[in-house]
Amino acid sequence: SHDRAATDLQMLDRLSARLVALPESAYDLVLVLTDADGSRVESTRLLSDRAVLSAVAEALKPAARLRAQDGGNLANDPAVAREAVLAGLVAVGGAFEKPDYDEAPVTLSFGKKKTAANSNGAVSLNGGAVSLNGGGAVSLNSNGSVSLSSKPSTAPAVSAPPGVGFVDFSDDLDMDDDDDELIDEDALLTDADLSRPLNIPPECAPKAGKRRRACKDCTCGLAERIAAEDAATRAAADAALAAAAAAPVKLDTDDLAEVDFTVQGKVGSCGNCALGDAFRCDGCPYIGLPPFKPGEEVRILNNDIQL
To answer: What sequence ranges are listed for the domain Anamorsin C-terminal (predicted)?
Structure first.
């Protein structure tokens, strides 16, 4: 039995729902009550919540314990034991105890007649007193007090320990040198490498009825191959156009049938030049002339048409 005036009853489910808050370092003992059916199934489930067990651990005083009312071992449940350890509790005899970390003074004792170093930067320890050099910059008396002298002392030169160097940040470390030899990446490939066929992935292979297309970040060489084929096709077309423009235009007899009516039975390509302006094309050279018979000789000299 426990004194009801000195006890505090809290519900774990309300603590889990953040409806109540426990004071810090306030309880000497925390008892986990059993459920209504006499078991600890529900309480064990709630204690396995990290927030609940952390709040209970913070509410314990140093050396206080968390145990079950029925005397059961709380450490038997792995989830509860894990969360208790993470909250800073220690398993002791079926319960969990909050360690008591007391502060204890640490005494420092100085040995007698220990001397070290020489006179030019010496530290001497005699009778519990420590003094630096003849200037007496810092002294430690026998009662443990430290006195500072107004006269400064000269600090010894600092030497770099073995394996440690100093870096001059004003040195550019030859970062601006342009004499670095660059490696030509094409020189790294041999003739055998260049003649080796490209391994085109199946997804890059041309499909029936579709023009091949390379990926945006193509690395298999298909993009370069398509670009070379397009360049060759364009060059061939440009050469054909240039050759056609440079060659003279020659008209055969059949080509002159449209404008030449000196041949018996020949008519224009439209067949309407001899019928009159009503039947002539817009660009016909005979516009304005009266109709004439097919085969009749027509001459155009100096923009003067003669029949």
So the answer is: 200-300
